[in-house]
Write a structure and sequence with these properties.
The complex is a heterodimer of chains A (67) and B (215).
Chain A: E1 2-5, E2 8-11, E3 17-18, H1 19-25, E4 33-37, E5 40-42, E6 51-52, E7 57-62
Parallel strand pairs in A: 1-7
Antiparallel strand pairs in A: 1-2, 3-6, 4-5, 4-7
Chain B: H1 2-15, H2 20-27, E1 31-35, H3 39-51, E2 55-60, H4 83-94, E3 99-104, H5 109-115, E4 121-124, H6 129-142, E5 148-151, E6 164-168, E7 171-175, H7 189-209
Parallel strand pairs in B: 1-2, 1-4, 2-3, 4-5, 5-7
Antiparallel strand pairs in B: 6-7
Helix pairs in contact in B: 3-4, 3-7
Classes of the chains: A mainly beta (67), B alpha/beta (215).
């Protein structure tokens, strides 16, 4: 499937996967993430039950301490 | 969408030539929320006050410490003072026409919704990653029309070119998106200052280009 991840087009070698699987697949390692699917906020506990499909717009942001 | 971006770009290009009196006249009617008055928040607030923003809503639970003075807009005689009040004093000395609302409190979802309700733009200037997450998630859910400008990744020194802006709808992220503070990666005035100025610059760009968010 082809998705947009953080404003960039990505080809993923799967037809579908959960948000949780995508996070592992793309190696987002920080503990705290803000995630969005097609402009809708996806909370942490929803990531296991939310599926990513072809054409989806995905945002995964690391929360980084400092300021 | 492309047309919209083009139109916005055109508009920004036009008002990029605006004279300072006109800029101040527009900004006088605007209200910006600053969540956290540390390295990002204090410096960003100073830039916005100098440019003539009408109202700043400051929120922070901390007091000024000696270790803050390597990057935060406070002075040695303010050590021990509550940051929101010390910053309000400094802003008043810079530009007394700015109205300041100080909240000495630790923000949670409920409080931030109340405190920043009428703000045209919210600056996320916390140091703690969990607080950043809380603010971004809360604003995206409850204030979908309100621009939020977050600071993410500014520790250490050097590497100017790594600092940038990314936009995801109404959420703007300024920073290098990767450096986390640690003993060997301290937050220092230059890189924290660059990100704070980028947040202020972006806030001004948004405020001069669009109508206030509908609430």
């Amino acid at each position: 499937m082809k998705i947009t991840l953080n404003n960039r087009t990505e080809t993923i070698e799967r037809d579908t996967m959960t948000f949780e699987e995508l996070i592992e697949y793309k190696n987002f390692t920080f503990k705290l993430l803000v995630t969005k699917l097609n402009d809708k906020l996806i909370k942490k506990d929803e990531r296991k039950i939310t599926f990513i499909n072809d054409g989806d717009k995905v945002v995964i942001l690391h929360m980084i301490s400092g300021g | 969408m492309i047309n919209f971006i083009f139109a916005l770009h055109q508009k920004i290009k036009v008002i990029g030539f605006m004279n300072f009196s006109r800029i101040k006249k527009i900004l006088r009617g605007k209200k910006v929320g600053i969540a956290g008055c540390g390295g990002l928040g204090s410096n960003c607030a100073v830039a916005l006050a100098r440019t003539g923003i009408g109202k700043l809503v400051l929120a922070d639970f901390d007091v000024v410490r000696k270790s803050n003075l390597n990057r935060q807009y406070y002075f040695t005689d303010q050590i021990g003072q509550k940051k929101v009040f010390a910053l309000a004093d400094n802003l008043y000395f810079i530009n007394p026409s700015v109205t300041i609302e100080s909240h000495h409190t630790k923000l949670n979802a409920k409080r931030l919704l109340k405190v920043f309700k009428d703000c045209d733009v919210v600056i996320e200037a916390f140091d703690d990653a969990e607080m950043k997450e809380m603010l971004i998630e809360t604003c995206m859910e409850k204030f979908p029309g309100k621009p939020v400008i977050s600071g993410m990744g500014m520790a250490g020194f050097g590497n100017n070119h790594s600092i940038r802006v990314e936009q995801y709808g109404n959420l703007y992220i300024c920073g290098d998106m990767e450096t986390e503070i640690s003993d060997n990666m301290p937050p220092l005035a230059p890189r924290v200052g660059i990100v704070a100025m980028m947040q202020a610059n972006l806030a001004i760009e948004i405020l001069l280009a669009i109508k206030p968010a509908k609430l």
